[in-house]
What we know:
By secondary structure, the protein is of the alpha+beta class. Strands 11-12-9-19-16-17-18 form a seven-stranded mixed β-sheet.
Amino acid sequence: MSAEPQDATRRAFLKAGAALSGGLVIAIALPGCKPSAKNAGETKFIEPNAWLRIGTDDSITFFCDKSEMGQGVYTSLTMLIAEELGVGLARIKVEFAPPGDQYVNKLIGAQITGGSTSVREGWEKLRNAGATARHLLVSAAASEWGIDPRSCKVEDGAIISPQYKKLRFGDVAEAAGKLPVPKEVTLKPATEFTLIGKATKRKDTPAKVDGSAVYGIDVKLPGMLYAALAQPPALGGSVKTFDDEKARTMPGVTAVVLTSSGVAVVADSWWRARKARDQLKIEWDAGPNGALNDAKIMQTLRKGAATSGRVMRSDGDTAAAIKGAAHVYRADYELPLLAHATLEPQNCTADVHADGVDIYVPTQVQQLAQAAAATAAGVDPKKVRVHTTFLGGGFGRRLEVDFIPAAVEVSKKLGKPVKLLWTREDDMTHDAYRPPAFDQATGAFDDKGKLIAWHLHLTSCSITERFFPGSTEKNGDPFTVEAAANYPYDVPNVHVDFQRQEIGINVGFWRSVSHALNCFVAESFMDELAVYAKKDSLNFRKGLLEKQPRFLRVLDLIAKESRFGYPPKGCFHGLAVMEGYGTYMAMVAEIFLNAAGKVVVRRVYCAADCGQQVNPDTVVAQIEGSILFGMSALMWGEINIQGGRVQQTNFDSYRVARMTDAPRIDTYVIDSTEPPGGIGEPATALIAPAVCNAIYTATGRRLRSLPLARHRLA
């Protein structure tokens, strides 16, 4: 997901109360949040909305409000706190924050990890939290010494006076908690950073190496049972009748429960539950999608495309410019449904008891997870505690909460904790898939060969409208026109419109959301226009980006490093550029065709200007991972539907890039002190147009639909 910042009131920092051991708690009030109350004399948290806790035992705990799914926030966000607080990274213990309005992501408007917003949203907020805590601690120490706080310095969790007296944070935590919180604090300039901008080893690596890191699939509770869920094979289907007689006689089976999403078999081990589930005899109602197939989906989109969409950008008079143009060029593009294919299948462990509900879940949306569990249990959301685990992949799939209710329903019925785990096949066939699209592009030239008009007519589904019904009525859905409405080229007449066309099944946010859809269309079409204008693709773009210095920097850098246009013998280059999530990126794909005529991506060059880097090592890793993720979709990614049923069931039929498919990736990140941009998603969107543009250079064949396997090129 991506989003533009919303109007925000000035951040305020509050003292939320003392730690259980007596200490300092720093919390942040965000728009729409209520500050924590303070009860005099109490030494406990009033409510769990603190970001930073410093105890009299000298412990430091950071409550991380973003889910860790491999993107590195467990480390990078802690670096922001540590930089301003004045401690080494190892000193800070990280815990995942619970649901709470104070953890609302101000760039999105909900408690969400997504949209490449984690560092962008925390950049000032978390540094302010660290700096505020440091100010209070230093002030408390200076008061004890009777000196000016400005004369003190902080080194690795200790305040040091000019006379070299030293007090640890824990020594003054309780006193600091009684001081008035400053309205403003001074943040370090970039020239004084000691952690930010330095390649740093990840805090979660040791636990993931030794197996102590807890993912949702690892959760174990005393007395816990296991559930396997039989779900309707047709999307949107339901249970008509079922016979569980044989399943109930299977070893270890304790119950069979009809849930809101299917029939759950419960046993003393997951494998026993899984085996017994297969013995259920269920009559399914296929529901409204019983006749749905690929052809009908594309037919529906094409029919929707016949209607003009909602205008999302309009510069000049595009219609008049096209009508009066000397030359007009048009192209249509088709994109398929895609699965998220997270390595860890969907799962939830629920414990419904008299005091409320506890769920242990790998989620990107703590408050939505809380609400889903509350509805399933029939309790107030305040009685639901969400324990966020590490996520074995997110990619937007865990913005969904469809795997939570059944676990809660079963636990409530049995009165015991229950871990519900989907199989890979369950996961692949019951996803909220990336939307398909049918897009039409038009470019117009004057009699001198100048590009004078660009029209992009997009037709697809609205994920946002499904998540938040009615939210797009006023201003449209910005998540459908990413990498389109912000078309960067200097063309006097630009028109971008989006026609919402639903297809009857749930679609979801997928890594880079509509950037991947629209960048493929926009950058493939730019290459087509360059060929039509008889210009090379690099200089054609540069000529239209003369007012965009950050674009020009990444273009010049990537052209130099890749020797664009001069590939090794037998290889071919393709180019793509994009701005997404505040990051400017250019990519060159170097390909060749093997003896069987299949495309082999030999090397990928990527130049990025993502503003100030927090952990450069993570930046490079995210670019590399995004490219490989995008390559899977480019080469083989496609979900096919017949009779409402998804045909792909596992990685044998939904292939992803393997080690032998991985190209060499050369990444170049421009040093910058601009505010951070997002880095977890943009490269996903560029690999497809870059490779397809290289294919044209190699073969003269223009591809306007994906994946390459559809064209027998992969």
